[in-house]
Amino acid sequence: MSKLGKIAYKPVGILLGVGAGAIAGFAFKELWKVATGDDDAPNATDEERGWGEVLAAAALQGAIFALVKAAVDRGGASSVRRLTGQWPD
Length: 89
Description:
0% strand
């Protein structure tokens, strides 16, 4: 991809990342509600929650974020290829 194409894709990639974070956060909260029946996932500093629950929530949240971000990034790159004929680096 040309240098101009890379620069043009940068703001799109940032916006996609922000959107992916929002989608992942929503998905995590909904999945946590379904899995535990609890509306609030534990924070690392939540004194009322045990280590296992805190670490399980963190692992689930990280996995969901990584999956959504990869899907959004891949979709964005595929769209750029369809529009420009070149894959963004």
